[in-house]
Write a structure and sequence with these properties.
Layout lengths: L11 E4 L2 E4 L10 H5 L2 E3 L2 E4 L2 E2 L2 H14 L8 H15 L4 E9 L13 E9 L6 H5 L2 E10 L16 H12 L4 E6 L4 E4 L3 E6 L4 E4 L8 H12 L4 E4 L9 E8 L3 E8 L2 E2 L4 H14 L4
Parallel strand pairs: 8-9, 8-15, 12-13
Antiparallel strand pairs: 1-2, 1-7, 3-6, 4-5, 4-6, 6-7, 9-10, 11-12, 11-14, 14-15, 15-16
Helix pairs in contact: 2-3
């Protein structure tokens, strides 16, 4: 597979209020965001040229910035308009959109009150990660040694760059062992999420159970799927789930902007077969984000 580096592509990036050539969208190597992870971001998808839940993502970007003790220098409406303009300029219908904001290079220390806040938005073509048949084979998850921190230890409800460091470590370790991703526990030992997606379980009781999002991001896709499966007739139970309960799981799936709805076939030593529930949920989600119901 040919890899196209993200710093050497055609197109434009919205950068501090202006459209700039993709290759010219640069920041200094001594930016606070690079050295101290004072960067927040969003991952969004467009389907048929329409950005799914664009305003919710923009509002969460602002909330993430505020949790990191800075604010965005543009209004929500300005950011939403910039995303739409960029998508139109790129001529893309099914795409991934990445808005992000970070502290600049005016100060190089832990303290950073006087740094400029930069905002940029990029988008690129990104169709669904798998077709339905491929999705229904399910992905495999290792169980990570890294745990999600407590709310007293980190700004856990911010979509902030630094919180993904242990996700990268977890995914790399899982891939070296032959898994495709990793499931993470929280600081108490309860099941939390995968490295970049929330997790759901169809249990033996016929209900869909999902971990309480009290120390990790309550995903926008997660909330959409909870509403969707409730409308489909499932009872959704949000609670603390112990790893030993995996033996009671009939089917499992992940949710996220990139993952959409992705069935799971294995977690550690536990095997499960994605079945009719996963198929129905995958198909209904695909219709929902495309405005077909």
């Amino acid at each position: 597979m040919t890899i196209i580096p993200f710093d050497d592509r055609d197109g434009h990036i919205w950068f501090n209020g202006e459209m700039v050539d993709w290759r010219d969208a640069k920041t200094h190597v001594l930016s606070h965001g690079l050295h101290y992870a004072s960067l927040v971001f969003e991952g969004e998808r467009a389907y048929g040229g329409e950005i799914y839940e664009s305003r919710l993502h923009t509002e969460r970007l602002r909330k993430s910035a505020q949790l990191m003790d800075f604010d965005l220098p543009y209004s929500d409406d300005e950011i939403i308009a910039a995303k739409e303009q960029l998508l139109k300029m790129a001529g893309l219908k099914d795409a991934y959109i990445r808005p992000f904001a970070w502290r600049g290079s005016e100060m190089m220390a832990v303290s950073a009150q006087n740094t400029k806040i930069h905002v940029a938005i990029a988008c690129w073509e990104w169709p669904s990660m798998f077709d339905l048949d491929a999705k229904m084979r399910g992905i495999t998850l290792d169980i990570s040694k890294w745990h999600r921190p407590s709310p007293e230890s980190a700004p856990v409800h911010s979509k902030a760059a630094g919180l993904y460091m242990i996700c990268t470590l977890s995914k790399h370790a899982a891939e070296r062992k032959g898994f495709q991703d990793a499931m993470m526990l929280d600081y108490r030992g309860y099941i939390a999420e995968a490295t970049g997606a929330n997790i759901f379980f169809l249990m033996d009781d016929g209900k869909i159970h999902t971990p309480t999002a009290d120390c990790f991001l309550n995903g926008i896709t997660r909330k959409s799927v909870i509403k969707m499966v409730t409308d489909m007739g499932y009872e959704v139970v949000e609670r603390h789930i112990k790893p030993e309960e995996l033996s009671q799981v009939r089917e499992c799936f992940l949710t996220g902007t990139a993952a959409e709805v992705t069935p799971v076939s294995q977690i550690g030593d536990h095997h499960m077969n994605p079945g009719s529930a996963c198929r129905d949920i995958v198909e209904n989600y695909s219709k929902m984000v495309r405005g077909q119901h």
